Amino acid sequence: MKYITWLSKNLSLSIPLFLLLGLVAGLALQTESLSVLIAPLTILMVYPMMVGIKPKQLLVGGDNAVQLWAIAINFLFIPFVAYMLGRIFFTEQPALALGLLLAALLPTSGMTISWTGFAKGNLPAAIKLTIIGLFLGSVLTPFYVKFLLGSDIPVQLLVVFQQILLFIAIPLIAGQITRTLLVRKHGVEGFQKKYAPKFPPFSSLGVLGIVFVAMALKGPSLLQSPSLILRLLIPLLLLYAINYVVSTLIAKKRLNRGDGIALVYGTVMRNLSIALALSMTAFGEAGAQAALLIALAYIIQVQSAAWYVKFSEKLFPIQ
Fold first, then answer.
1. Please, are residues 65 and 255 in contact by the beta-carbon 8 Å criterion?
2. Hey, is 264 helix, strand or coil?
């Protein structure tokens, strides 16, 4: 548990480490059979996050402005920015454009809540953002992909929905059952103090496992074209930069400090873990290529989130 917690708290180091280990494994071993681990690793990643979700948070009021701004950015702006960047940088490689689009279509994750807390933002608003983003992203992602990339990549809506059901709905139900049983046995305070902190590190373990498998399966192909890494990083950096700038400007002009920080982390933090699993299970060979881009997005996301915490006091001074 000590080592798992360390890996979870140091994702900026552990993700590059597991990317490297996956690459070494892909070069040294036959790794095709590792694909069977994608589904269980994804469930391992999502289930602990669902134990901490309280659907009653949706009934908490007072943050309508930040919720509406987040929905507008997450579903009416960023997906189309990702689509345009994909068209510009991956004109002849629709599979990589798919990776960029999937990264943009699934907003919020456990990181949204964590980083909002680190930056002293509005935690209840961040929790609500996470729940709403998760559900809307789950419903809308298949239709966005079909509408924007359906002419370039075969999209089977039923298959995508089946994978979303497997990766989101089932862990959500299991997580809520777990939470209910533990609260019933140990009380709310006992659950929050003793059990709640033990779940998130296992979610990070699932993330690292998926990153390892993705790199083991597709990493060796990167070495055949080293320049591809740079071609993947440039549109990713642009996507995150545009997201940070737009969210920060809206937050500073339209929201108070706490809601503003929640908005930034509720729009910039993407649910890359589900995007990665979805790409590798629902889109065939195209999804396997898309997974490389999503895996690299982890590094940018974690590092940029940490830097933003450092700048948040200057951007959003405490009155």
1. yes
2. helix
Question: How many other CB atoms are there within 10 angstroms of residue 130's CB atom?
Answer: 27
Answer yes or no: are the C-beta atoms of 199 and 63 closer than 8 Å.
no
Q: Please answer whether residues 64 and 189 qualify as being in contact, where contact means their C-beta atoms are separated by less than 8 angstroms.
A: no
CB atoms within 10 A of CB 20: 13
**Encoded amino acid at 189, one letter:** E
For each of the chain's 319 residues, which pLDDT tens digit applies?
Answer: 788 888 877 777 887 888 889 889 988 988 888 878 888 887 887 788 788 777 776 666 677 899 999 999 999 999 999 999 999 999 989 999 999 999 999 998 777 877 888 788 888 888 889 888 888 988 899 899 999 988 788 777 788 888 888 888 888 889 999 999 999 999 988 998 888 888 888 888 887 887 788 788 777 777 777 788 888 999 999 999 999 999 999 999 999 999 999 999 999 999 887 888 788 777 877 787 788 888 788 878 888 888 898 888 888 887 6
- Of 301, 22, 51, which Cα lies nearest the Cα of 201? 51
Secondary structure class of 63 (helix, strand, coil): coil
Cβ within 8 Å of residue 85, ≥6 positions away: 100, 235, 238, 239
Which is it for the CA torsion 276, 280, 282, 286, positive or negative? positive
CA 262 to chain centre: 16
**Residues 51, 203: Cα–Cα separation, whole Å:** 11
- Cα angle value 290/296/297 (rounded, 5°): 90
